[in-house]
Amino acid sequence: MGSLVKKRRKRMRKKKHKKMLRRTRHQRRK
């Protein structure tokens, strides 16, 4: 699953989804 997350992150970077990524990161941390 870790590799899948890394691949998804790279795709999001290309699509400029930094705001969405940040939101998910905060939710995962809590």
Give the overall average pLDDT: 64
Enumerate the spans where pLDDT stays under 50 for 5 or more consecutive residues: none
Structural class from helices and strands?
mainly alpha
Query: Overall 3D geometry?
Result: flat
Q: How many domain units?
A: 1
Radius of gyration, in Å, reads 10 Å
Biggest sheet details? none
Tally of alpha and pi helices: 2
Order of helices and strands: HH
Distance between the termini: 20 Å
Amount of helix: over 70%
User: Which strand-content bin applies to the residues?
Assistant: under 5%
Count of DSSP strands: 0
Strand-helix topology:
Blueprint: H1 2-15, H2 18-29
Structure explained in plain terms:
The chain is mainly alpha-helical. It has one domain. It has helices at 2-15, 18-29. The N and C termini lie far apart (20 Å). The mean pLDDT is 64.
Structure summary:
By secondary structure, this protein is mostly helical.
Features:
mainly alpha, 2 helices
